[in-house]
Write a structure and sequence with these properties.
274 residues, six-stranded antiparallel sheet, five-stranded antiparallel sheet, 8 helices, 13 strands
Length: 274
């Protein structure tokens, strides 16, 4: 079914993939997810193959949309428990306009057919090429961002673990920085703080896309990037995610102008993010 659907309405993983459906569920529960659209598997295929009607519908949707988008993979089965396509299904950030969005969709579609992604699917017993849907969301430009686990990802202790860095969280996902790490009790009490070395920051570019930049301020390299109030906000978000979706959540987040955004909420798997 070739459909573009408001993200808050996405509820069929076979059509819209795991990421869009999970984010749609978060939006319906009032969690702070950036708004956007779920692009179905068939619609993505149509865009990639240059079907005029699909391109016209996408152009109509984008008309008058001046704010950039994050274009994220949402493959069927991508966020299933026991599967982690970390680093294989791509995300294209800070994309504006029809040409850039179409190019981003094509890049993501191709990532599902890469040799590494195909080999991983084979190991999981998933037959055939990836069924790739896409999540198209309002872009967040975070001052700091990262990942959060509602169960310790190594020891399985019942506590909250947060990793944080300046700018976009891709610096953590791609292993470019040693992030700040925080351990909190489920009640939000700070148990441990470990300052990282955040000497690289990923920023959005004015004309689209992102770039890596060295952090020039030595204090920002070594000082933690979250204060007590922000840690409290994150602990509250962790609690809400577990209340709605169950224990053991892997969360991506960003804070822009002191506003906390939820970028992904999935079950903890053997990998951290995708």
């Amino acid at each position: 079914m070739k459909r573009l659907l408001a993200l808050a309405l996405a509820d069929d993983e076979a059509l819209y993939g795991g990421k869009s459906v999970q984010l749609g569920a978060c939006l319906r529960r009032g969690l702070p997810v950036p708004p956007g659209w779920a692009v179905s598997v068939e619609f993505v295929d149509a865009i990639v193959h240059g079907e005029a009607s699909a391109l016209a519908q996408l152009a109509s949707l984008l008309q008058g949309q001046s704010e950039p988008f994050a274009v994220r993979s949402s493959a069927v089965g991508e966020d299933a428990v026991g599967a982690s396509f970390a680093g294989q299904h791509l995300t294209e950030l800070n994309r504006s306009g029809l040409t850039a969005i179409v190019d981003a969709v094509g890049t993501i579609w191709n990532s599902g057919r890469s040799a590494s992604a195909s080999a991983y699917r084979e190991r999981l017993g998933l037959l055939g090429p990836a069924r790739m849907a896409v999540t198209l969301q309002k872009m967040v430009f975070p001052d700091c961002a990262g990942v959060m686990f509602t169960r310790h990802p190594v020891t399985s202790a019942d506590e909250i673990v947060i990793e944080a860095t300046w700018g976009l969280g891709e610096a953590i996902v791609e292993g470019l920085v040693d992030p700040d790490r925080f351990r909190l009790s489920k009640q939000g009490q700070l148990l441990e703080t470990q300052a990282g070395i955040k000497d690289i920051c990923i920023h959005a570019l004015p004309d689209g896309g992102i770039e890596q930049r060295p952090v020039q301020d030595a204090a920002r390299v070594h000082d933690v990037c979250l204060d007590a109030a922000q840690l409290s906000q994150l602990a509250g978000l962790a609690t809400l995610c577990e209340q709605h979706f169950g224990a053991g959540r892997d969360i991506e987040w960003g804070i822009e102008n002191n506003t906390l955004f939820l970028l992904q909420c999935r079950a903890i798997t053997s990998g951290k993010t995708s």
